[in-house]
Amino acid sequence: MIAKDGTPQGRPPSRPDGAQAITGLPAPRRLWAALSIWCAIFLTIMDVSIASVALPFISNGLGVTAARSVWAINAFQIAIVIALLPMAKASQILGYKKVYLAGILLFMLAASGSILATSLPVLAISRFVQGIGAAAVMVVSGALVRTIYPPEFIPRGIGYNTIAVSIASAAGPAVGALVLSLASWHAVFAVGLPFGLLSLVIGIWAIPSTAAARQPFERSSALLSAVGFAAIFLALNDFAQNTVSGWTLLEVCIAIPAIFLLGKRTSTRPDSMVPLDLLKLGSLRKAYIMSAAAYAVLILITLSFPFILQQRFQFEPDAIGLLMVPLPLGIMIAAFVSGRLVNRYSSAWLCGAGLIILAGGAILLSLMQPGVSTFLIVLAAAVCGIGFGIFQVPNNHSMLATAPHSRSGAASAMLSLSRLIGQTLGALMAALLFRKIGAQSGAPIVAAALIAIGVASATLLRKGRSRSTIVE
Description:
The chain is mainly alpha-helical. 77% of the residues lie in helices and 0% in strands.
């Protein structure tokens, strides 16, 4: 049968470029596919927060210093930074589903090495392999939103993923503390395995297969990307930990030429491993910068807040953990609402409003003095979370939905990369302010508020100028 527009009924309409229109999955299967992604998010996100809680126990159990035990986290983060762009390219060549399922399986297999580790090198290597698997999941989970949801539901899908991240982040410390009270530190690396198994089983059936692109994998570009980004991460870590040495200079000397050669090699190639084509789009470039800035703000707050609660207000560790919950809870609630507002209101206005609310919550936190009610502390933390949640969904939507569909993997990788860059820069700034001014001063929170206000002002002013230009 033929519809009124001439399109055969029962088939999705054709797009002008000849590709089939993206209509998403039917409702029952869409829910199962989304559940697989949420479980994968729990697997990778909760793992990081649980491992952070376990660091003192890892240090004592393996007989290493606290500084060395941090490699259980650093090895994981370095692997993610190294693997993001190569995994994005691999997903474009092999298809999203294969890379997604392989990432989950690799993460779970490497987790067995972490569970059985009896030395720090074995643990660090296992965590490094887990990071590679996590990078595959991060790259594809964002890209799959555009595949499983109809276009009008994509903002909601991004919001649901944000809610899953918030729940995993909020639950991680509490779950980690519970596990550590019942078993040794090895057990914390087994907590996510049920989520991984569930994600794998459901994903095999529910996640749709995507067409593979016939393109060569750029091995030299992958090597330059791995070496360059790893050297940058290590150098920034040295600055953040105040352990600058001759090795730091060597890392900088490796990073600069590696990144330069990588950019030069990929600048003339279409669909290159480094998505320069996406960076040339002004709206995407602005979204990446805003994302990095917002995550730097969030890290400045989350790193400084526990010190203020402990040193300024004299709260006990269990109370500090509870007082940290309103922030991710606020993100979760706001993300749910914001996902329904993206199609109704301008992303620029939503992002600007979210950053202003985030700044307001940060200012409230910085002004609080001993004797203030616990309710006000909870309220200020929740306001910070609400502001970030309002910002995150429309900005993530801009990063994922604005990119060409064939570059969804690269767009998802850039989303994750902007987040990691922001977190790293925020941690570096927090460490510098801690050393110069003191952790109890709240200086990082003040800096976070100023950054949020500055980025929000630039966003809203640019939106206003664009509107006035259109009117003229």
